[in-house]
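Why do we care about 3D structure at all? Because function follows from shape, and shape follows, mostly, from sequence. That is the central idea of this module. The next example makes it concrete: a single protein chain, its amino acid sequence, and then its structure expressed as tokens.
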Amino acid sequence: MGEVVVGVDGSDGANTALSWAVDEARRTGDELTVVTVRQFSGMLTAGAALRDAYGERLQTVATERAEAILRDALASCADAGVPTTSEVLRDGAPAWPLVRRTANATMLVVGSRGLGNVRGLLLGSVSHQVAVHAETTVVVVPEPTDPDRRDDKVVVGVDGSSHARAALRRAAYEATLRHCELEAILVPPPPPTMAPRSRSQSTVDAAVWTGVLWPEGRHGIEERQRAYDEALAHWRHAAESHLADELALIGHDQLPDKVTPTVFSARHPARALLDAAAWARLLVVGRRGRGGFSGMLLGSVSQHCVRHATAPVMVVPPDAGAASAD
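And the structure:
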């Protein structure tokens, strides 16, 4: 049995994340731990100031506030049928206590936005930091998630790296848990060169990727169109074959009943994933991936998705996908 940790701060965004975490723990059979970070409402200096009555009072108020947040959170999921505990994480900027606490957890769930225990502390910045630095899988849940309106689909980005392969393995597991379709998306990178006045394969490929034919010249329209069509077919075939190979590495028995491989061209990878997952139940991305299908940096893509997705985003670190899905 694993542990799903969810960070709460009393905001609507955190409450949405809590609901998502409860549902996930129910599906996986993991224990749920609800945590909040104790925050002082004023600035304290080290040493003597912490020992005087004022400092002690601030600590007491901060602790009581954190405990009240946890009581409300636990009350909201009391009937969920999930083994649940709670914990106050001691002082600090919220991201770092969460990162330290969840080093051995199965998953950390946070809201994409909200106010922290200190007014003005954007939980959005916390979600970004934990997605980058946590050693475990992180799920960032936007608010609202509209679960009843979402498609029965889990979307995952594939780029040929080991990081993305971990994400694909985890996405297959999550789709199977939900009895959902798995849509695996590959955006082939642009060619490395686009030399002017050249009919080299790289130039043709670049024209295909950008959707632009090379300028008028001595070659006729029909010849250019034929070269374009041939390059497009070659480009798509290579991408589809690569995507099929990635799915085969996961193994048929580890995939859900319905798998849809999708290849996009002339799109930014993050934009393609965000559009495809706009109404998905989950978007899964790897962290710090550099494609074997060279050029696609899934690390930067994952951060863009965390910031802008309308679906919950699961960020899988390199070593988390296989262990969590087995």
